[in-house]
Amino acid sequence: MSKRVRRRRLPLSAGRRLLRKICAKFSLQPPRYGMTLDTDLRFCSYVDVEIPRSSRIIEVITSWGAPSSNTNRTQEDAARIAIGRLRNELGFEVKDTNYEERKYLRGLYDQICHDHEELHDEYEMLKLDYDLLRRFYNSLVAERDRVVADLEKLKENINECFEMINQPNAVPMDEESAANPDGHVMVPSPDHSPTVCGPEHTMLTDEDPIEDTFDCKN
C-alpha cells in the first residue's frame, strides 16, 4: 500500500496575499503559480492572472519573478510584478506598506547619520580638549617633581646646617666669652716695655749728678 504524502502549504507572504485580495475584489480568478529552473539551476517562479476582456475572451497575464535559490522569494517577486501590471490594467492604487516602511526607515537612517556626524564632530572636539588637558597635566606633573626635588635639596641643606651647629666641639660665642672674660684683653709684647714718664720713675746712676734730674716733659 503506497503512502500518500500530504504537501504542507506555506503561509502566504505579503505580496501573494495582496494579489489574492486584489483578484477577489475585482472578481478575478485566483492567481496560479508555477515554478521552473533556469540554466543555473535556480528557481524561477511565475504567476498567471486571468482578465476577462469580454464575455468570451479571457486574457492571461503572466508575470515572472527573479531567479533565486529560495522559492518563497521568487514567488513573492512574481506576485509584486503581477500587482504592478494589474494596477496599470485595472486603474487602482495600492498602498505598498513595504514602500512606506522603506521611506520611514530611510528617513530614520538619514536622521541617525546626521546625529552620528554631530556626535563625531563633538567627539573630535572632546579629543582635542583631552589632548590639551593631558599636555597641561604632564607639565604640572613635571613642575611638581621639580618643586619636590628642590624641597628635598633644601631639606638636606637645612639638616646639614643643623648638624654643623649641634657638633660637640662647637661652642657658642657668648658661652666662650663667659668662660674666658680676659681672653680678649691684649697682652703687651715682652720686647716693648711701656714708656713711663715722671720724676718718680727716673733711675739715677753714679755718673749723673743728683741735682740733674731727668724730666721727660722738658
Oligomer: single chain
Which stretches are poorly predicted, pLDDT < 50 over at least 5 residues?
1-10
Report the end-to-end length measured between terminal Cα atoms: 181 Å
> What are the secondary-structure elements, in order, as H or E?
HEEEHHH
Side by side, the strands of the main sheet go 1-2-3
Q: Summarize the amount of helix as a percent range.
A: 40-55%
What value does the Rg take, in angstroms? 63 Å
- How many helices in DSSP terms? 4
**What is the percentage of strand-forming residues?**
5-15%
* The CATH C-level class name of the domain at 14-94: Alpha Beta
Structural class from helices and strands?
mainly alpha
Q: How many strand segments?
A: 3
What is the CATH third-level topology name of the domain at 14-94?
Double Stranded RNA Binding Domain
Shape: rod-shaped
- Sheet bearing the most strands, described? 3 strands, antiparallel
Report mean pLDDT, rounded to a whole number: 79
Shape-level CATH architecture of the domain at 14-94: 2-Layer Sandwich
